[in-house]
Amino acid sequence: MAVDYLSTLNSGGSGLNITQLVDSIVAAEIEPVKALINKQVGVNDLAISEVAKFRGQAATLEGALSVAGAGGVFQAQSASTAVSIAVNDVNALSVGTISIQTNQLASRQVLEFTGFASVDAIVEAGTLTVEAGSWSDSDVFSENISVAAQTVTIDSGGLSLSSFATQMNALTGVTAQVVDKGDGTFSLSVLSDFGEDNALRLTVSTGGPTDFDTTDGGNEISAAQDAEILLNGITVARDNNTITDLVNGATVTLNAVTSSSVDLSVTTNIAGAKLELQALVDQINTMRSYLNEATARGLNGAEGGALAGDASIGAIKRELASITTSPLPGFGAEPIYLSEVGVKTNRDGTLSIDNSQLESILVSSPAKVDAIYNSMNSMELDTLTISFASSAKPPEGVHEFLYDQASDSATINGIALSSRENVSGEREFYKLTGDFYGIVINGGTESPTTDLTSSVYIGRSLVDRLSDYLETITAARGDLSTKETYLKARSTEFQDKLSEADDKADIIEARELRKFAKMEQTVTQLKSTGDYITTIMDAWAKSD
């Protein structure tokens, strides 16, 4: 208890505990205000903690989304490591088995030019023409007319061997490097692309780099050749060991020659697909259940959630629910609904799986399940291909591509596309601005000779939708960061209000002490006057 120095020093006063009275008056006026502020502080601090917890939940879900569907809806398997198979387009895949025997691997032509004293040995000035084609057993060269000849020009004064190798290496279809033989000499190694028709002929047309002329078929260490395989018993040749046109939607890689056939199979991974989808649904449900608890209103006496009534968190909750219930357009002529693949939405917003329906769709239309995990961009016409810049965010759905042969112009949804010829001589149509920024439609090696109409399918998977949204709200300027900034500002505001209340308490205390001091002074004076009168009266009574 505070010491009442005022009453102690002024023993002739009222006798009241002034300090205690003043403390009670100050508390009566200030404590209700501080109690209200402290209650607001508690609510605000709880909200800050809850938003941090929400951010943690979002990070956990983002991590789960990053690996969702990694096992794939389809399973491509090889019976031997000599031949491997990998899925590259689930929409083109068909379930089945093929048999492959590799009789010969595709290889590069290897040329070696020997006898150089150092990497700085001078290559004489002149012009060297490099052509692609094939060599016969009698050293007769047949040019590959689909590959343009290239020229290396060495200016007067010549080039060092290493600089010449750099120029050669810059040519299309040529790999060149200087090799230290280890015996005090250096060689220039020149490799062609894979395939029999990609062998090289080097011709000195002018000047002096005659050491590199191979018009007589010389300097060859090993010849270029095609891969030769038996596909279900049929002899097939390819110019590369990585082959994309043997199994629709898959890449076959030849790793070694085989003495017998190897079975390659594509099957629907029903058991794995069910487990992966259940794992994804469980993670989404964890987030949904958390949000339901954090935003609960607390009706009928129940305790409310820390973020109950928060408009921004409520908006996030609704958007996440919308993403998991909205259709997925752009994966074909009709949108895909999660309910089609057996994913149902419960009354509380969580998801559940109808395993019977899921198994059925995995057998009949497995690509619909894959749309949950993998986005897709494709063209209805097989002669056209589509790609996007990495930063592009094209509108989802089905769009119309038109090419008018008479005007040699193309549009998508009526929006004009620019055109160009790429480095491979292929015709491309593209857009650098607007909704279709970054789109590139490849029309092949030449301009189309007829009018073309093709649907353009742009589909974003459920996983990509969720990932993009979570990345947006957790970004430095996202909704969660904005909410955290607001709550921290509120915390500072409440602390300022508490300081103001303490300052006001000091003012009230000083004011009340002044008032009671005057009262004590008055009481003391009155008591002194009373004592004086009493003394006089007593004297009068005694004299009488």
Describe the structure.
This protein has 544 residues and is an alpha+beta fold. The chain has nine helices and 28 strands. The strands form seven sheets. An eight-stranded antiparallel β-sheet has the order 21-28-23-24-25-26-27-22, with no helix packed on it. A five-stranded antiparallel β-sheet has the order 1-18-3-14-15, with no helix packed on it. Helix 5 packs antiparallel against helix 8. The longest helix is centred in the last third of the chain and has 65 residues. The chain starts with a helix and ends with a helix. The mean pLDDT is 88.
Strand content: 25-35%
Radius of gyration: 42 Å
Mean pLDDT: 88
Report the count of strand segments: 28
Helix/strand layout:
Blueprint: H1 5-9, H2 18-67, E1 74-78, E2 83-87, E3 96-104, E4 108-116, E5 122-123, E6 126-135, E7 141-143, E8 150-154, E9 159-160, H3 161-169, E10 174-180, E11 186-194, E12 199-207, E13 220-222, E14 227-231, E15 234-238, E16 242-243, E17 250-254, E18 262-268, H4 270-294, H5 311-325, E19 343-345, E20 351-353, H6 355-364, H7 366-370, E21 376-379, E22 385-388, E23 397-404, E24 409-412, E25 415-421, E26 427-430, E27 439-444, E28 452-459, H8 462-473, H9 479-543
Antiparallel strand pairs: 1-18, 2-17, 3-14, 3-18, 4-11, 4-13, 5-9, 6-7, 6-8, 6-12, 10-11, 14-15, 16-17, 19-20, 21-28, 22-27, 23-24, 23-28, 24-25, 25-26, 26-27
Helix pairs in contact: 2-4, 2-8, 2-9, 5-8
